[in-house]
Design goal:
Layout: E1 4-5, H1 15-20, H2 22-31, E2 42-46, H3 53-65, E3 70-73, E4 86-92, H4 98-109, E5 113-118, H5 121-130, E6 133-136, H6 147-160, H7 166-184, E7 186-187, H8 192-200, E8 204-210, H9 214-228, E9 233-237, H10 244-250, E10 257-264, H11 269-284, E11 290-294, H12 299-321, H13 329-363
Parallel strand pairs: 2-3, 2-4, 4-5, 5-6, 8-9, 8-10, 10-11
Antiparallel strand pairs: 1-7
Helix pairs in contact: 2-6, 3-6, 3-9, 3-12, 6-7, 7-12, 8-12, 9-12
Length: 371
């Protein structure tokens, strides 16, 4: 197998460089001074796609260290519990994601404590006009490549305002993550990302992890979708043992797929037993799951290590298939069409509103003054 040094590989669209900058962006973000005060009972992180995944990683890590609920909301509406005692972090790299703009408007209406993390766009204009705190991310990169900065800023905001000490935890694990990155960029036979990419090339990977690493497993799925232009799925254990396992053990055309299981260092005794039983059951029924060891003493370290491995897997897969990892023309086209539709709907709404007001005015003319 030929050794590939990604730092010396052709990178016309800058995706490899952006991937390599993941840790540097995070490092800078957690060390930036953020002037913002808040007093809250729960945290809502609002965003879509690559802008939301950083929140999922912190929400997973909060399983071990957070005394308060942290939920990622990827929708057009906020749940009822979000209110004045909620810290709302609005994350949209472009600043123009329609669903996120809708969540922002609702957060303002409910009097939430809001911080916006963005590179610009309409959300910045709205936040400045509303007097809402804005934390700026560097421009000119793919939204999914901004995850390092997103995680860093979110961790910084949360700890600075008295929430879980995510920033402190990140500072502890960064040195080991830098060492992992130096190994992942060299595509030799010892590189775990290369081994995984070769194993799943030409197949449909399905990635399973415990709930503590569900965000990392989902990141694998989305990176393989976008960077490698391959179908992929993700799920959690033990939940998948109550449904998915039926197809894995008794379904047809299973050789098209490749199961990937995250085996965590420091996981609980019951989770280790559940994973072992899952692997044994699959092997007994003719499946050959790929078990990947995820090192790390804390959930946040394991989550980030898993993300880094998956990101590099997606880049090696793109190289094997000869595709441009940065190209997402279909997504751009969809967003454009969706935006056009929403603009039309908004105009129609305004027209109906004006027509209704005119009709009401005609039906209820002002009374003439009494003489």
């Amino acid at each position: 197998m030929k050794t590939i040094n990604l730092l010396e590989a052709e990178d016309p669209t800058g995706m490899i460089e952006q991937l390599y900058d993941f840790l540097g962006d995070m490092d800078s973000a957690i060390n930036e001074t953020i002037d913002f005060d808040a007093d809250y009972d729960n945290i809502a992180i609002c965003g879509m796609g690559g802008s939301a995944i950083g929140g999922s990683i912190l929400a997973d890590a909060g399983f071990e260290i957070s005394d308060m609920p942290i939920e990622v909301i990827e929708f057009t509406e906020l749940p009822k519990w979000v209110g004045e005692r909620t810290l709302v972090i609005i994350s949209t790299y472009s600043g123009n994601t329609y669903e996120t703009l809708m969540m922002y408007d609702q957060a303002v209406e409910r009097g939430c404590q809001i911080v916006v993390v963005t590179s610009g766009g309409k959300i910045r204009e709205k936040a400045i006009a509303d007097g809402v705190k804005v934390v700026s991310i560097k421009e000119g990169i793919q939204p999914r490549s901004a995850i390092g900065a997103t995680i860093g800023y979110m961790a910084n905001i949360i700890e600075t305002t008295g929430g879980p000490k995510f920033k402190t935890e990140l500072k502890k694990v960064l040195p080991s993550l830098y060492r992992l990155r130096d190994r992942l960029v060299i595509g030799d036979k010892k590189n775990v990302a290369v081994k995984v990419a070769r194993r799943i090339h030409g197949k449909v990977p399905v990635i399973y992890a415990s709930s503590v690493l569900s965000g990392s497993a989902y990141r694998w799925k989305t990176q393989i979708n976008e960077n490698s232009k391959m179908m992929a799925f993700s799920g959690t254990i033990p939940e998948s043992n109550h449904n998915d396992i039926m197809w894995w053990t008794e379904g047809s055309k299973r050789d098209t797929f490749q199961i990937i299981l995250f085996q965590e260092d420091e996981s609980s005794k019951i989770m280790r037993k559940l994973l072992n039983i899952t692997v044994c059951t699959l092997r007994e029924r003719g499946m050959n799951p790929l078990v990947i060891r995820i090192r790390g003493r804390t959930a946040i370290e394991r989550g980030l290590r898993a993300i880094m491995i998956g990101d590099y897997v997606s880049i090696y897969l793109a190289q094997y298939s000869g595709v441009d990892p940065a190209q997402i023309n279909t997504i751009i086209s969809f967003k454009s069409r969706f935006s056009t539709l929403l603009t039309y709907m908004e105009k129609r709404k305004q027209q109906r509103s004006r027509k209704k007001k005119k009709s009401e005015k005609e039906e209820n003319p002002p009374s003439e003054p009494k003489s």
